[in-house]
Amino acid sequence: MQILLVDDDTDSLVLLEQILRQAGYDRVRSAMSVHEALQVLHSQESAGKVDVILMDVMLPQVSGIEGCRYIKEQEHLRDIPVIMVTAMTGEDDLEQAFAAGANDYITKPFRKVELLARLRPALGLKQERDWRKARERELLEVSTQLQIANHTLQMLSCQDGLTGIANRRHFEETLRKDWRQALRDQMPLSLILVDVDHFKAFNDHYGHQAGDACLKRVAQTLSLSLSRPGDVVARYGGEEFAVLLADTDLAGAEKVARTLCENVRELGIPHEQSPTAPMVTISLGVAAVRPIQEAGAEMLLRAADDALYRAKALGRNGFES
Ligand code: GH3
Ligand code: MG
Ligand code: MG
Ligand code: MG
Q1: Cβ–Cβ contacts within 10 Å for residue 148, how many?
Q2: Boundaries of each GGDEF domain copy (predicted)?
Q3: Exposure pattern of 87-98 as b/e (b: 16+ CB <10 Å)?
């Protein structure tokens, strides 16, 4: 434990230090004024390490009472117990010292056993405060880690493992939310369902791994082809994707569908076994509604699915609405 002595009388300092060292306290520092004491408290080797201050009251320039008050006003110093050591024994002096935040008071000439007896609880108090602070810091650290973990989990729970875009769960949540928003704002909402053409044949011919890589590229292309911040693309199923467009009417959604179809085709991923084209293509079903109170978001899904079915039947590599 480190003890800081503040006294303008050298004899007092020597005596105090001697007693303390004899009692086994070998980390003792001295200061002859409040100013010097603050220098020690802020110095490299003692900052945050002083465990108790023994402070004389009668000091040049700034009194020990003022010094104590100042220390107790500082957030980073106020935990250090201050014991006043003084020859001034009046009741007023005592009152002032305690009002300034002093933890204890010893009168000079002091008895050795009294000094040591009063020192012990003060040091115990400091230790307890340090321990509590360390616990608080630990708890804060743990709670920060938990928050990060929670955030990560939440992100992962919305993400499709293979492609990194939103998963079906997140899509369905967003669909419900966007539907309610569109209903409130009386705005249109559009949905595009996307299905990779002849993908079973692609897998059979190129292998499942190439199939996975193809799905990743298609997902990325769909995602990069959307321009509005509110647009959401999700993996809806195996080789099916869903694109949700808020505040978008049918004409707008058809434009997006055309772009998506073109962009995937332009990736030029070879697909020799496809009867449609010698490359990977997609079919799209487009639906747009202005939500009404009486219907739910399922009607939009059903309409997009019907349109996708027609796009497939009509030859694939295109969209229907
Ligand atoms: P269509 O043009 O009518 O859509 O024909 P299709 O072959 O794409 O349709 P089908 O539903 O018969 O086959 C879908 C295929 O997608 C079958 C399945 O093996 C493949 N598939 C689904 N999920 C994955 C996946 O995560 N990775 C890979 N590599 N293939 C997948
Ligand atoms: Mg003095
Ligand atoms: Mg399919
Ligand atoms: Mg398919």
Answers
A1: 10
A2: 187-321
A3: ebeeeebbebbe
User: Which residue, by CA, sits nearest to atom 19 of ligand 1?
Assistant: 200
Nearest CA to ligand 1 atom 17: 200
The Å distance, Cα 65 to ligand 1 centre, comes to 83
Q: How far apart are CA 68 and CA 81, in angstroms?
A: 10
Q: What is the DSSP string of 9-72?
A: -HHHHHHHHHHHHHTT--EEEEESSHHHHHHHHHSTTTTTTEEEEEEES--SSS-HHHHHHHHH
Q: Atom 15 of ligand 1 has which residue's CA nearest to it?
A: 200
To test the pocket of ligand 1, the residue of 196, 197, 200 to mutate (highest count of ligand atoms within 8 Å of its CB) is 200
- Kindly give the confidence (pLDDT) of every residue in the chain, 321 residues in length, as a single tens digit, with 9 standing for 90 and above: 899 999 999 999 999 999 999 999 999 999 999 999 999 999 988 878 999 999 999 999 999 999 999 999 999 999 999 999 988 888 898 899 999 999 999 998 889 999 999 999 999 999 999 999 999 999 999 999 999 999 999 989 999 999 999 999 999 999 999 999 999 999 999 999 999 999 999 999 999 999 999 999 999 999 999 999 999 999 999 999 999 999 999 999 999 999 999 999 999 999 999 999 999 999 999 999 999 988 889 999 999 999 999 999 999 999 999
